[in-house]
Write a structure and sequence with these properties.
two-stranded antiparallel sheet
Amino acid sequence: MLRYWESQFRFLNPAKNRSGNRVYQRREIELIMLVKHLLYTENTRSKARRQKIEQYRRSGELKPEARRALATETVKELRAELKSVLGILEGS
């Protein structure tokens, strides 16, 4: 999915290390989480996602929105992990 998003969003252009592996920086991870958030939370299509991201860029809100999306996704993942741990503890 990341390779597809890289082809759809020109701002996703990670550097590659000597082995040819992609190396994502924090800014790119934040933007990936914003794309993911728009896809799964707002259920937007590819064109609408690009337009929304361009709108954020023009208004100066791209960086804050990307950081907010990363924080939201991180909290969701932590909740899922905690729920899993709780399930294991309650099953003991």
